[in-house]
Write a structure and sequence with these properties.
Strand content of chain B: 15-25%
Strand order of the largest sheet of chain B: 8-10-7-11-9-12-13
Structural class of chain A: alpha/beta
CATH class of one domain in chain B: Alpha Beta
Largest sheet of chain B: 7 strands, mixed
Number of domains of chain A: 1
Distance between the termini of chain A: 5 Å
Order of helices and strands of chain A: EHEEHEHEEEEHEEEH
CATH architecture of one domain in chain B: Alpha-Beta Complex
Oligomer: heterodimer
CATH superfamily of chain A: Class I glutamine amidotransferase (GATase) domain
Structural class of chain B: alpha+beta
CATH topology of chain A: Rossmann fold
Chain lengths: 229, 760
C-alpha cells in the first residue's frame, strides 16, 4: 500500500502517522508539501493532525484552500481513500469532503486523554479489522473537536451508516460520561457517503505499540492495508 | 589581538536625549556601574549604547550576583559534552546521540500576563534547545502559585496552564511532566519554570561561537517589533514623536511561527552551511550578537536598518532591545546565503543578512550608513560588574520532636479523615486538570505519562537496534523536575541537597540511570544578606549532592528579585534532571495495577515530621528542621532499587516524598485502581510519624516476591521491610484506618477542578 501524508505549515502529527503506517506496512509513506498541486499516485491520502497555519482564522479553514487540497478533492471524487485525523478531520470538513463541522470543546479547554470509542460498523475499508460494537481505547488531543451538524445532516448520517466511531464509556455505553468535547450524538468520526473518506478526532496513530499507548488503534491501519494492498 | 581603537565616533540621532543621571538610573545601572561604562567607552554613550550596557549588565544576562556561587557547582563528568555557558547543556546518551536540555524561568512576565508570559517561557526554552541542533522531544514545567485563597491565584493558574498548553501543543512537543505547588509566599510572585529536552547526533551539535572574518551574520524568523523592549519607561517617544508610546513589557508569542522556525532551522542544520547559531532570547539582538562575537573573539558590524521590522518608525535602540519572539541569529559560511534563504522562504520566514564579522573585537552598529553605536566587546564582557554580596546563612532549626506532634486522633474516622484531607490538599491533590490540557502523547514515544511514575519516560527517536543501539529494545530518557521549597526555606543547605537527591531518586524509581541536571534558581532580592545566604546555602547543598551522586549541573538559569513589597518567595532551586534507560521494557511506573503484590518499604524511617506536609496541612505549622539527607545512604538505596527494577524484580516503584509513606501508597493505589492493606512493622515509630513522616532516601516497591526482595536488600545492607499486599477496594492500615479507594479518589480528583470552576 502506497500512502501520502500531506504536510502544511504547522502540521505536527505527520511523523506519528508516518511511524504507524511504516510499522504496519513496512513502507515509509511519502510526505507531500502543501504547495504541491500534484503528487504521485497513491492508494491512501492522509491529512494529519496539527495546527495548520496556526489554526488562525478557523481550524482547517486555510489549509482547505491550499493547492494540495484541490488535488485531494479531485482524487477523492475518483474514489481514492482519504483519512483525516484531528486537524485533518477539520481540514476535510472545511474542504467539503465530509459533512458537519468541529467546534470548540464544550469545556473550552484543550484535552489530551485516552478515550473509549465504540466502532459503529466494520463495513468500511478503515474499520474492517474491528467488530461493530467493539470498544477501543485511543487518545484524543484537541481543543476543537466538538462535532456538530444540522438535524437533517445528522439524520442522513445515522440513516446511511456514516457514523464511524462514537465516544463511549469503557463498557460501551454511549452517554455523556465518555464524551470529551460535547460532540453531537457522541460522534468521534464520520464517513462520506461512499465510506472512502474518514475523518476522526482521536489519534489511532498514537495507539499502535504496547509500551506507547497500547495497540487498539493498530486495527485501523491494518484494515486499510488489507483493503488497499 | 587587541581591541581596535574607535575610528568613527557614533552620531547622535535626531531627538536623541542627553544622557542624564535619571536616564542612567532608569536603565538600572548603579552610579559606579555607569562610571565603569564611561571608562570602557572613553566617552559618553549614545542611547543605544547605554541600552546595550544596561541589558548586558542586568542581573538576568550577567549573573553578577550569582556567578561567584554558581562556580561552586560540579559541572563535569565523562558523559558531559557541554556544561553551563551555552544555550543548553549537552550529555552523551550513547549510540552517537546526545540529550540537550535546560530549564528557564519566566516568572515576572507570567505574573503580569499569565498566558503570554508562560507561553513565551516555553517558546524561549524550546529555542535554547533547538538552536543547538536538537529536535525537542519533551517539555516539563515547575509551577508555584500563591495561596489558593488569594483572589488572583485562580486567574494565574488558568492563564499559565493555558499558555503552556497553547505553545507546547502547537509546537507538537509533548509536555510530559512537572510539578505544581501552592504557598502564600508566592502570592505576589509566581514561578513558571519551563524545561525542554531535545535529542541530537553527537557530531551535529551547534554552538554560538562566531568564526571567520567577513562571514555573513544572518537574521531569521519573525520580524522585530516593539514588544518586550527593555526599560519600557525610556520609551521611544523621546526618540520619535510619532512612534506609539509604551507597549507592554511582556513579549507576545506565536507558536505557529516557532514551529516553522524549528523546521526551517533543522532543515538548514542538515546541511553544513551554518558556522554558529544563537537564539534571540532575553535582551534580543543585543545579547545574541554580543555572545556570538565574544565567544568567537571577533568583532561585528551590524546594519540595523536591514533588520526585518514589524512596524515603521523603529529606531536602533528599539531594534537592539526588543524581545520579539521566534528569532535567530546565525553566522553562515560565505556563499551559502542563497541556499539558506530558500529554506527560510519555503517556511515563509524572514531572512536577512544584517552584518558581517570583523577582526576588530568591536560591535559597530550602523543606521542608514551612519555609525550609531561602537562598543569594544571584550571589556563589556570581562569588565562586567560581579558582586560578592554579603550573605548570612540560615541556621539549622531545632529538630521537631515527633512526640510533640499530635496524631490525627484516636478513632479510625479521625485517621481516615487525615488521609482524605492530605490527598485533597492543594499540593497533593490530583493535577489532572492541568496535564490533560497538555498534549503529552504527541510523537508517539511517551512510555510513562503524568501520574504514571516518578519520572516521565520517553523513547529516544532513532535509537532502535537498527541505529546501532546496544540495548535489547527501546532506549528511553527519564525526566523529572523537583524542589521542596519549604525545606529550602527552613534550611537552604538541606533543601538544596534534598532537591537534587529527590530528582535523582525519581529518575531511579523508574529504573533509569540519573545522568545530569539543570538548575533553575528562583530567589528573592540578593542585596539582602539573608536572601544571598539562602542562595549560598542552597548552592552548597546542591554541590554536595551533585558531587556525591555523580549528577553534574550542565545548564541553568537564575531568577532573582522575586519579591513583592519586600516579601520574598520561598527559596526555590528547581532541579530538572535527565536519566537514561537502555530498554524501556525494563522500566516500571508507580501504578499498582494488580492484587497480591508484596509491598516493601526500602530505607530507614525515623518518622521525621519537621517541615512535613502533615504538620503544615493538618496542624497549620511550618516548623522544625527539614529531614536530613544522607547522600551515601541515598546512593546505596537508589542503586539497589535500580538494580532490582532493571533485573525485573519489581512491578511498581514510588519514591517517598511529600506526605510520606501513606500518601505514596495512596498515590500508587489511585493511579492503578487497586487497593492495598499494610501493617506497621515491629519497632516502628508512632503511627502518624511512621505513616506521614518525610524521611529521605526511601522507596515503596510492589513485587511478586517480597521475601526475595527483602533478602536481597538485607544482603546489600539496605533496610527493607515487608508492609503488606495490594488488593481489595480499600486502602487499609491494620488497626488504624480503612478508606474506600473511591472515596479517596473523589476527594483527590475533585479539589483542583472544583477550585478552578468555583466563582472567584
Amino acid at each position: 500500500m502506497k500512502s501520502a501524508i500531506l504536510v502544511f505549515p504547522g502540521s505536527n502529527r505527520e511523523g506519528d502517522v508516518a511511524q504507524a503506517l511504516e510499522l504496519v506496512t513496512g513502507r515509509r509513506p511519502s510526505l507531500v508539501w502543501h504547495g504541491d498541486g500534484d503528487f504521485e499516485k497513491v492508494d491512501l491520502i492522509v491529512v494529519p493532525g496539527g495546527f495548520s497555519y496556526g489554526d488562525y482564522l478557523r481550524c482547517g479553514a486555510m489549509a482547505a484552500q491550499s493547492p494540495v487540497m484541490a488535488e485531494v478533492k479531485k482524487r477523492a471524487a475518483q474514489g481514492v481513500p482519504v483519512l483525516g485525523i484531528c486537524n485533518g478531520f477539520q481540514i476535510v470538513t472545511e474542504a467539503g469532503l465530509l459533512p458537519g463541522t468541529l467546534m470548540r470543546n464544550s469545556h473550552l479547554k484543550f484535552v489530551c486523554a485516552d478515550v473509549h470509542l465504540k466502532v459503529e460498523t466494520s463495513q468500511s475499508l478503515f474499520t474492517n479489522r474491528y467488530q461493530a460494537g467493539q470498544v477501543i481505547k485511543v487518545p484524543v488531543a484537541h481543543a476543537e473537536g466538538n462535532y456538530f451538524a444540522d438535524p437533517d445532516t445528522m439524520k442522513k448520517l445515522e440513516d446511511r451508516g456514516q457514523i464511524a466511531f462514537r465516544y463511549c464509556a469503557p463498557d460501551g455505553t454511549v452517554d455523556g460520561r465518555g464524551n470529551p468535547n460535547g460532540s453531537s450524538s457522541n460522534i468521534a468520526g464520520v464517513f462520506n457517503e461512499t465510506k472512502t473518506v474518514l475523518g476522526l478526532m482521536p489519534h489511532p496513530e498514537n495507539a499502535v505499540e504496547p509500551m506507547f499507548g497500547g495497540t487498539d488503534g493498530r486495527g485501523l491501519f491494518e484494515g486499510m492495508v488489507e483493503a488497499l494492498s | 589581538m587587541t581591541v581596535a581603537q574607535e575610528k568613527n565616533p557614533p552620531v547622535k540621532l535626531p531627538n536623541e536625549p542627553a544622557i542624564t543621571p535619571q536616564i542612567v538610573a532608569e536603565h538600572g545601572l548603579a552610579p559606579d556601574e555607569y562610571e565603569r561604562l564611561l571608562k570602557i567607552m572613553g566617552r559618553e554613550p549614545t542611547m543605544v549604547e547605554l541600552g546595550i550596557f544596561s541589558a548586558m549588565w542586568s542581573e538576568h544576562c550577567s549573573y553578577k550576583s550569582s556567578k561567584v556561587w554558581l562556580k561552586k557547582l560540579p559541572t563535569k563528568a565523562p558523559w558531559v559534552i557541554q556544561g553551563p555557558g551555552e544555550n543548553a547543556g549537552v550529555i552523551d546518551i550513547g549510540d552517537g546521540q546526545a540529550a540537550i536540555f535546560k530549564m528557564e524561568s519566566h516568572n515576572h512576565p507570567s505574573y503580569i500576563e499569565p498566558y503570554q508570559g508562560a507561553a513565551t517561557g516555553v517558546g524561549g526554552i524550546l529555542r535554547d534547545v533547538f538552536t543547538m541542533g536538537a529536535r525537542p522531544v519533551a517539555n516539563l514545567n515547575a509551577l508555584r502559585f500563591g495561596d489558593p485563597k488569594n483572589p488572583r491565584t485562580r486567574h494565574l493558574v488558568s492563564g499559565v496552564v493555558a499558555g503552556i498548553a497553547g505553545y507546547g501543543n502547537c509546537m507538537g512537543i509533548p509536555t510530559v511532566g512537572g510539578e505544581t505547588n501552592f504557598h502564600a509566599a508566592y502570592n505576589g510572585n509566581i514561578l513558571v519554570n519551563a524545561m525542554t529536552v531535545g535529542v541530537a547526533p553527537t557530531d551535529k551539535i551547534f554552538y554560538a561561537a562566531a568564526t571567520g572574518v567577513g562571514n555573513p551574520m544572518v537574521y531569521v524568523g519573525s520580524k522585530t517589533g516593539r514588544d518586550g523592549i527593555h526599560g519600557a519607561t525610556m520609551s521611544s517617544t523621546e526618540f520619535n514623536e510619532d512612534s506609539e508610546s509604551k507597549r507592554p513589557t511582556v513579549q507576545v508569542g506565536d507558536p505557529f511561527v516557532e514551529k516553522l522556525l524549528l523546521e526551517a532551522c533543522l532543515e538548514l542544520m542538515a546541511t553544513d552551511a551554518i558556522i554558529a547559531i544563537q537564539d534571540m532570547g532575553a535582551a534580543g539582538l543585543t545579547s545574541s550578537s554580543f555572545e556570538m562575537a565574544a565567544k568567537g573573539g571577533l568583532g561585528l558590524v551590524m546594519e540595523l536598518d536591514k533588520v526585518p521590522m514589524r512596524e515603521t518608525g523603529m529606531n536602533p535602540y528599539e531594534l537592539m532591545l526588543s524581545e520579539s519572539q521566534e528569532r535567530m541569529l546565525m553566522v553562515l559560511k560565505p556563499g551559502r546565503e542563497d541556499e539558506a534563504r530558500k529554506i527560510f522562504e519555503k517556511w515563509e520566514l524572514d531572512f536577512a543578512v544584517i552584518g558581517h564579522l570583523t577582526d576588530t573585537e568591536r560591535m559597530v552598529l550602523t543606521w542608514h550608513g551612519d555609525v550609531v553605536g561602537n562598543i569594544p566587546i571584550p571589556p563589556l564582557v570581562t569588565e562586567a560588574p560581579m558582586y560578592e554580596r554579603p550573605w548570612t546563612l540560615t541556621p539549622l532549626p531545632a529538630e521537631l520532636d515527633a512526640a510533640k506532634v499530635p496524631a490525627p486522633g484516636n478513632s479510625p474516622a479521625d485517621w481516615q479523615a487525615s488521609l482524605v484531607a492530605l490527598m485533597s490538599s492543594p499540593d497533593l491533590a490530583s493535577k489532572a486538570w492541568i496535564w490533560h490540557q497538555y498534549d503529552h502523547l504527541i510523537m508517539g514515544n511517551t512510555a510513562i505519562r503524568p501520574q504514571g511514575g516518578d519520572a516521565a519516560l520517553v523513547r529516544v527517536p532513532g535509537a532502535s537496534k537498527a541505529a546501532g543501539h546496544k540495548g535489547a529494545g527501546h532506549k528511553g530518557l527519564a525526566m523529572t523536575s523537583d524542589c521542596t521549597p519549604r525545606y529550602v526555606q527552613a534550611h537552604p543547605e538541606t533543601g538544596g541537597r534534598q532537591a537534587v537527591a529527590e530528582a535523582w531518586r525519581n529518575i531511579t524509581a523508574v529504573g533509569a540511570r540519573p545522568l545530569a541536571v539543570t538548575d533553575n534558581m528562583n530567589f528573592g532580592n540578593p542585596q539582602k544578606p539573608e536572601i544571598m545566604g539562602q542562595f549560598a546555602g542552597a548552592i552548597m547543598g546542591m554541590a554536595e549532592a551533585c558531587t556525591a551522586l555523580d549528577f553534574p549541573v550542565v545548564s541553568g538559569n537564575v531568577s532573582l528579585y522575586n519579591e513583592t513589597e519586600g516579601r520574598p518567595i520561598l527559596p526555590t532551586p528547581t532541579i530538572g534532571a535527565v536519566g537514561v534507560i537502555d530498554d524501556i521494557a525494563t522500566s516500571v511506573g508507580s501504578r499498582l495495577v494488580k492484587a497480591g503484590l508484596a509491598l516493601v518499604l526500602i530505607g530507614d524511617t525515623r518518622g521525621w515530621l519537621g517541615q512535613s506536609i502533615y504538620l503544615r496541612e493538618l496542624h497549620g505549622r511550618e516548623e522544625g528542621a527539614p529531614p536530613p539527607v544522607d547522600l551515601a545512604v541515598e546512593r546505596r538505596n537508589g542503586d539497589f532499587v535500580r538494580d532490582q527494577i532493571v533485573g525485573r524484580k519489581v512491578e511498581a516503584c514510588h519514591d517517598l516524598s511529600d506526605g510520606g509513606l501513606l500518601v505514596a501508597l495512596a498515590e500508587m493505589c489511585l493511579s492503578g485502581s487497586t487497593g492495598a492493606s499494610i501493617r506497621l512493622p515491629a519497632g516502628a515509630p508512632a503511627p502518624h510519624a511512621f505513616l506521614y513522616g518525610e524521611d529521605q532516601g526511601r522507596y515503596l516497591i510492589a513485587t511478586d516476591d517480597g521475601g526475595a526482595l527483602v533478602e536481597a536488600a538485607t544482603r546489600a545492607g539496605v533496610p527493607a521491610v515487608l508492609l503488606g499486599y495490594s488488593g481489595g477496594p480499600d486502602i487499609a492500615v491494620e488497626g488504624l484506618l480503612s478508606v474506600p479507594l473511591q472515596e479517596l479518589r473523589d476527594a483527590h480528583e475533585a479539589w483542583l477542578p472544583g477550585y478552578m470552576n468555583s466563582a472567584a
